[in-house]
Amino acid sequence: MLEPADSQEAKEFIKIAFDISERFDTPVFLRTTTRVSHSKSVVIIEDPQPVEDKTEIRITPSKYVMVPAMARIRRLEVEKRMQALREYADSFAENRLEINKTEVGVITAGMPYNYAKDVFPEFSYLKLAMVHPLPERLIREFAAKVKKLYIIEELDPFIEEQIRAMGIEVAGKDTFPFTNEFDPGVIEIALKGKQATAIKLPEIAIPARPPNLCPGCPHRGLFHVLGKLKAL
Question: Which domain holds residue 182?
């Protein structure tokens, strides 16, 4: 599972996901959140790569027909694959160490990385791009470099629990909230224990924006017709 932190990474990680999928013969997820999906930023593009036609019919029941006899054998292949992916995660270039002051280190992924860097640029960071499997060797290396280690992740403590299972002492949901979306202020308040300075915005009349189906969504035409017909 890959997790981008901005528009450029969302684009690049799609290509990387296909490469990993081909290399390790595995499904790859790209995990994105509302804030990443709704963000806009400049993206560098390249010319498309030539497409290699790999269309063919392959009959491999030992891989795709999971009756018990085949499933037992296939499970061994899955375990081999996961071990290879764990080793790959430790050398994955998009998992990035940023060593600054070593009093505080932060392990994070996705948009919370941007929030934390915004308010605490002096901290050291391990920015995870691959969040499953986690790069255990890299995590241990980073933890050994810092005095205090925080895990910053929204909602459930998936990364925190796995790192605790490695025997590494961290602070996470004992410091940061379980609920709602983070922003720079939430992270600053959690670590400093005080309210961030509010910025007074000019009063501007903004039109109401009720929830709506996105432009271009194929559901729009369907529901428009159902509404005209008063159909359920």
Answer: 96-192
